[in-house]
Amino acid sequence: MTGPGAQPSNVVLILADDQDVHLGGMTPMKKTKTLIGDAGATFVNAYTVTPLCCPSRSSILTGLYPHNHEVRNNSLSGNCSSPLWQKGPESEALPVYLSKQKYQTFFAGKYLNQYGKKDAGDVSHIPPGWDQWHALVGNSQYYNYTLSVNGKEEKHTDSYEKDYLTDLIANRSLKFLDDRSPQHPFFLMLSPPAPHSPWTAAPQYQNDFGDVKAPRDGSFDKPGKDKHWLLRQPINPMPNSSLTFLDNAYRKRWQTLLSVDDMVEMLVKKLESIKELDNTYIFYTSDNGYHTGQFSLPIDKRQLYEFDIRIPLLVRGPGIKPNQTLQVTRHLLLSSLHVLL
After folding, report:
1. Which structural domain range is residue 33 located in?
2. How far is Cα 262 from Cα 167, in angstroms, rounded to an integer?
3. Strands 104-110 and 46-47
4. Does 264 fall in a domain?
5. How many domains does the chain contain in total?
6. Which DSSP state fits 34?
7. Is the entire prediction scored with pTM above 0.85?
8. Which positions fall inside the Sulfatase N-terminal domain (predicted)?
9. Which of 98, 187, 255, 311 could form a disulfide with 201 if both were Cys (CB 3.0 to 4.6 A apart)?
10. How confident is the model at residue 333 (pLDDT cuts 50, 70, 90)?
11. Radius of gyration for the chain, computed over Cα atoms and rounded to the nearest angstrom
């Protein structure tokens, strides 16, 4: 990402949690689509390597497919943030390489589902390559969570101003940019909890999208009797109580994403104010998609259908022409990032 003798470009990676494309998951992200997509390229055929958080995130961090990094699921026994992962793929992940290239590295948010737990090295474990580390212990939360802040435990409660995780990630990333050395490039990885359950929106957004319902697309509440075993199990048709729950879940997911949209805007404005925007690649993506009633399935991911495997992927930066819509199919390893850096 540099020319001969040029200053290396900065990189920002924003990784949402469970954000689909197929069912309209990018609809609330008006600022993000303008500030990243319209200012650069949108990949409309981007796919996760596997529709599950920990294996997908492990692929993003390493550039390896799951059969190579051997993270099979979200459990410790499935190699999620396990000692085996830490000794192997994690020790050769992207931040390790970037650190060797004199990048200043910053992480904030959800890392891997088992991160920070006792059998995974507890909060004292800082993956190699990170200069600043603000990682969530365990799975996504918005309030009442624990962080590992550079290896020290930091507990949070339920104050919006102090604790709302998406905003905390944004604010700490801005401070990192203020404190950085201008002599070296930087890499930020921001991993907000949205739109993962428990779908806790910021107070100012809790009444948004009041009329929105889960999309009644062609597979919504349809029997999966001709599909594989798991899709043959759900009750069909779904009861009214399930429909109400799905509509509420869908609406709340959108509400949580509004804070992520704000975070993107804050970050772009900060990069512009410190005169780094033109030399920074900003990637926006998700670890996997999601479903809300397709084939009568309850909320989740894990299925090899478009709604679960297709994900957002937007990028802007030096040399990327604005307003591009790219049809090329991409598996989300961000392998191009690993190669170009």
Report:
1. 10-101+189-340
2. 9
3. unpaired
4. yes
5. 1
6. I
7. yes
8. 9-327
9. 255
10. low
11. 19
